[in-house]
Each structure stands twice: as structure tokens, then as C-alpha cells.
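Technical annex B. To support the medicinal chemistry partners, we prepared a structural model of the target in complex with zinc ion, based solely on the information shown next.
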Amino acid sequence: MTSPKVNSKRGASIAAFSSELDGKIECPWCGSMDTVVRSPFGGTVSEVMMQCKACNSGFGWMKWQGIKPSSPSRN
Ligand SMILES: [Zn+2]
């Protein structure tokens, strides 16, 4: 039994964060939801670096704070 070799671990993880968080995190500066993951890790490991496409500002988002309750999650 061979385990699949994952060379692009970093790329895989940012893709995972992107698919989960892109367009779901509100920009703290302008309130836009047009945000994308810029880096899976910000200043700390519990922080994701996000980029707002509306105002072009970057901000850190804490992974543990969850998706903002303002957007009702009904999958
Ligand atoms: Zn913004």
C-alpha cells in the first residue's frame, strides 16, 4: 500500500482554504464580500491572509472565529 506523494502541500492547502473562504469573509475595511484567500497563514498559524478585491486591502482572518453569522448558512 503506497500513500500518494503530496509535493504541493502548500498549494493544496491554499486551494482548500480558497474553496471554503473565497467570497464568504466580509472585508473589515469596506464590508465587501468580494474577498479571496491570499495565503493560508498570516501573522500566526491561526490566521489566514485575505485580500479584498473591492478595496484591494489585505487583512488577517482568524480561522477559529468561523464564518460570520451575518450570512445564514443553508447549504
Ligand atoms: Zn474591502
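Notes passed to the chemistry partners:
The chain has a mean pLDDT of 82.
The longest helix spans residues 9-21.
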